[in-house]
Amino acid sequence: MNNPIGALPAEFENTHEGVKILGFWVFLATDVMLFASLFAVYVVYRSRVALGPTPAQIFRLGPVLAETLILLTSSFTVSLSLYAARTSHLKAAIAWLVVTLVLGATFVSLEIHEFVTDVLAGHTWHQSAFLSSFFTLVGTHGSHVTFGIGWAILLTLELAFRGLTVANRRKLFSFALYWHFLDIVWIFLFSVVYLAGVMT
Amino acid sequence: MRKAPEDPTLPGESVEIPLLAPHLSTPHFPARQIAGYVTSLILTGLAFALVAYRLLPLSTLLIVVLVLAFIQAAIQLGVFMHLREGRGTTWHLPIIGLGLFVGLGIVGFSIWIMLFKSGVS
User: Fold this and answer.
1) Is residue A38 within 8 angstroms of chain B, CB to CB?
2) Which domains are delineated in chain A?
3) Does the model's ipTM exceed the 0.85 cut?
């Protein structure tokens, strides 16, 4: 069954759920400031490489492009999950959510692989101010995504057992907000850290 | 099945500022999502190609890549994050705006202060 155009989506139907969504936006606003601080530290320190490698020496754009496309696709699939929930298709909502968390897990494993490769080559975050700020910034994003995967697993179970209740719809909406927000942060990581890093 | 509530029943639910009135729509086909995804893919590919194949001089390259990133962020916010939806006044707009204002200030002024090659750097 489709919502007629202009109708209020079910997650806003209950006043309390609407307030919780507003609260989640407040959390996202604080997360914007957290990532802004880490970006500021990174852009200030990115040229301070000490005796370690420069950004252009350790960044490989191929795997990073793959990570970007995977996260972008997962952002699309979670929007389809929310769309399915709003049009009351429970199975489609669960299926797209599972696709999203699988893509998220692929993204995290590619990032862990990148970090392990760097560390095994001796480029730990002790080596230079650039590497400290790089691992802190990218690692904070990666840990957010990892947390999001755990959240998506719990949300999938809740949808499977309890169905599309108003509370579950609101939780899916909040999760979608969180996931799209992480995609926005990654777009800036991709541009400011990786693409700008190989411009020499 | 569901209808928009006739009129806000609780204090604080009315649209107090016309600019912050919610925009709601759930059409029969997720066309906006698909369009947003395709546009994001094109913008990502464009930014990547510009850098990988050095299609622009170095001085303008960074600015173009940043502009492409901000366009993509706007697409994520507007299309995927349903930015204009809400119950009553969309109070999350000024909140997220404040977050962006402070965030861009932190980044912008950090870069600005480090451009003075004296003392602090």
Assistant:
1) no
2) 70-200 (1.20.120.80)
3) yes
